[in-house]
Specification:
Distance between the termini: 58 Å
Number of helices: 24
Structural class: alpha/beta
Shape: globular
Helix content: 40-55%
């Protein structure tokens, strides 16, 4: 059995292998998409293939829509050549349940995959044609937060972006410039409305996308590549909207156990590939079952009935509140606490950490005891139920191959939101005392101890990449496991830095407490574990 249109014609064999096949007419879907394109998506990776593309499938099967999604990638063209093309843009979706069972489904709602790069003029011309079509309703994105960035931390435009500004719409390559050039095609073809929907897992994602597009448009206006009318049109959200969204689903890299299970079932060609851009991707996507997509309902040219596929369509404030619930209380702070302690204690699996009584108790205290009193309630989801699902189903799922080392990446960029927001909420509340917090300070202390690059047994440990890693490790130079006095007053400038934590921890009365916890963790091998036990018992 091979994953392709021809390969799935033997429906009985696939069904005997436990794979659900699409029930709609795939050829008719492709023809309708060609004639009347409605949805383009940039970013052809796993979160798109395993979640977003899958939303269109039940709509096709119920006859609620007739066309599929056109996938485009501006970064890794090998994905299209090595994964999309050989399999007719189909994906074998494998949902991993906590009990070890797997649900298997062929997702066939992607009509075609296009390489959005200057080296592929045919594909670019196809995209131009699609953007000119009045039927186009939405353009969505999962290109990661870096995909929207036009400038470095000092505010200087990247050289490639400067080149795109100078060369103009006909010769650009950066994602934001390319999309802006495609919008220019739409403007010149009659200026039909369209929704530009970022579905990336970052705060205020629609705002980031809009800022990138408007910056490019303004730069081209200054160089007289575009007129004032185009800038006005793309700035008018009744014509070109930029809805905000919140997305939540773990789609890790392909797991060997899944590849082996599919091969044993008789499905050929399931081995992952590593592209020249170092993307690790397979014909299948393995992911957890729970998933959430909350989207601001602003679509000036109409939209698919996504609510029929489980998407929450709502207002901007609710999107923002849902994101804050997840990022500041119910998921992300727990992930970061598990990441740093998992590295220190020698774990290589988030799920395995949830079988550790101290680590499980730590994140339960952070979520239920310290987070719930100040959680933002988005009303469309129950925060306590969401947290319970995270703690009891999602994090303990042993079949989600996620590692603390991956989650520990860029922690300095995460702590001001994941912990700082809860700390600030306590400081604002008249009925709460910020100094009553214990487990969030313990998580912060664990991160500071982690920065030494030495695990709890005294062995050298590689810290995950982080833009602040060099500066923080320089600040902590000379601190030695087994010599708590070596800490000196090195943590003072760190704990009082509002950029790092979103607030001055020293001024709020938490600095000395966190410093004391770090000193306890420095007393010798095993001190991290003993410090955890001490505070969890108190």
């Amino acid at each position: 059995m091979k994953l392709s249109y021809a390969g799935i014609q033997d429906r009985r064999a696939w069904e005997e292998a436990g794979v659900r096949l699409p029930s709609f007419d795939w050829k008719a879907m492709r023809a309708e998409t060609e004639e009347h394109p409605t949805w383009v998506h940039f970013g052809a990776g796993n979160i798109f293939r395993g979640f977003i593309a899958r939303l269109q499938q039940p709509l096709l099967e119920q006859g609620l829509v007739k066309g599929g999604i056109i996938a485009a990638d501006t970064f890794d063209f090998d994905i299209m050549d090595q994964i999309y093309a050989p399999h007719d843009s189909m994906t074998l979706m494998v949902s991993l349940k906590p009990d070890g069972s797997m649900e298997r489904e062929v997702v066939a709602s992607i009509a075609e995959g296009l390489r959005a790069g200057r080296a592929y003029p045919q594909d670019l011309e196809k995209l131009r044609t699609i953007f000119r079509a009045p039927s186009l309703q939405m353009v969505s994105f999962t290109i990661t937060e870096k995909g929207y960035a036009l400038a470095d931390l000092a505010g200087r435009f990247f050289p490639a972006v400067e080149a795109d500004f100078a060369d103009g719409p006909s010769r650009c390559s950066h994602a934001m410039c390319l999309v802006c050039a495609l919008l220019l095609e739409r403007y010149r073809a009659g200026a039909a409305p369209v929704a530009m929907v970022s579905m990336d897992n970052c705060s205020h994602n629609g705002e980031k996308l809009r800022a990138g597009i408007l910056t490019v448009a303004e730069q081209w206006r200054k160089r007289e590549y575009v007129d004032e009318g185009f800038v006005a049109w793309v700035s008018d959200e009744t014509q070109v909207s930029f809805p905000w969204s919140m997305i939540d689903k773990i789609t890790p890299r392909p797991a060997k156990v899944v590849e082996e299970a599919l091969t044993a079932a008789g499905i050929e060609g399931m081995a992952p590939v590593v592209t020249t851009k170092n993307t690790y991707i397979a014909p299948f996507v393995n992911a957890e079952v729970p998933q959430y997509l909350v989207v601001e309902d602003r679509f000036p040219n109409g939209r698919p009935p996504l609510e029929r596929a489980g998407v929450y369509l709502t207002d901007r404030q609710t999107v923002n509140d849902t994101e804050r619930m997840k990022v500041t209380t119910c998921l992300n702070p727990l992930h970061t606490a598990l990441a740093v302690y998992g590295c220190l204690l020698g774990y290589d699996s988030i799920a395995a950490e949830m079988r550790d009584p101290e680590l499980k108790a730590l994140v339960e205290h952070i979520g239920y005891d310290e987070g719930m009193p100040v959680v933002v309630d988005p009303r469309i989801l129950n925060p306590r139920a969401f947290l319970r699902e995270v703690l009891e189903q999602r994090l303990p799922n042993p079949f989600i191959p996620d590692t603390p080392q991956r989650i520990a990446t860029d922690t300095s960029q995460k702590v001001p939101i994941r912990f700082g927001e809860t700390i600030k909420a306590y400081a604002r509340r008249q009925d709460l005392e910020v100094t009553d917090l214990t487990f969030i300070p313990l998580a912060i202390a664990g991160w500071l101890r982690y920065l030494l690059g030495v695990d709890d047994q005294g062995r050298a440990m590689e810290c995950s990449s982080d833009p602040m890693l060099d500066a923080l490790q320089t600040q902590l130079a000379g601190v030695t496991l087994g010599d708590p006095a070596s800490l000196g007053d090195r943590l003072g400038p760190v704990l009082s830095n509002p950029v790092l934590f979103g607030c001055d921890l020293t001024a709020l009365g938490l600095g000395k407490r966190i410093e004391g916890m770090v000193r306890e963790m420095l007393s010798g091998p095993g001190a991290v574990r003993e410090t955890l036990k001490k505070y969890l018992k108190s």
